[in-house]
Amino acid sequence: MKRRLFLSLLLLGTMLHAQGPLLEPNLVPEFERSQDGTFSKMNFSIPLDDISKSGLNFQKFEKKPLLLMYVSATCGHCHHAYPKVSKLASESKAKGLEMVVIATSFSKVDDLIDMKDDLKIKEPLFHDKQKKFGELYGLGSVPMIVLVNQQGHYIRYRSFTANVEQQIRAELSRWFASSGK
């Protein structure tokens, strides 16, 4: 019985760790790694629909520091977090940080347009209509924040709390201190 409980807890811990960092508030964020131990890279060729009518595609953000917010149009937490995340991104915009918002495949286009208008979203807003982004990077919860460095390596955050905001600020400070910006 003890062995079965131990193995179950070990398996659960492994599964949760594989889903990304910050399951515990004091866990230090790290770049995600592939099974072979190398840093995982964001796939910028994922087909996403441009809801913001900016004329951009996701590939435009490759090789740039990026703060990505993955949301659902009807998620109250997403609506609450967006202004704070947008403000955080704008503080590093002069240093080259870009921001995009990607909505889950479950979001309806009309709801996304309403969300864009209600929240006054000025960043590119994409719709994961084909479920490609969610399949690769979704953690099963929104909002999810993803920091992507110029090399395409990324850190996923399962939520946006005050603690996560501090961790993102610290990570961005490290990035821009080392780049001289």
Quickly describe the structure.
The protein is α/β, with parallel strands linked by helices and 181 residues long. The chain has helices spanning 2-18, 76-91, 109-119, 132-137, 162-179, and strands at residues 49-50, 66-71, 98-103, 125-127, 144-148, 154-157. A hairpin with a 5-residue loop joins strand 5 and strand 6 (154-157).
Largest sheet: 6 strands, mixed
Q: What structural category do the secondary elements indicate?
A: alpha/beta
Query: Into which percentage range does the β-strand content fall?
Result: 5-15%
Strand tally is 6
Mean pLDDT: 86
- What Rg is obtained from the alpha carbons, in whole angstroms? 17 Å
**Element order, helices and strands?**
HEEHEHEHEEH
Number of helices: 5
Ends distance: 56 Å
Residues in helix, %: 25-40%
Low-confidence stretches: 5-25
Arrangement of strands in the largest sheet: 1-4-3-2-5-6
- The shape is globular
Q: What oligomeric state do these chains adopt?
A: single chain
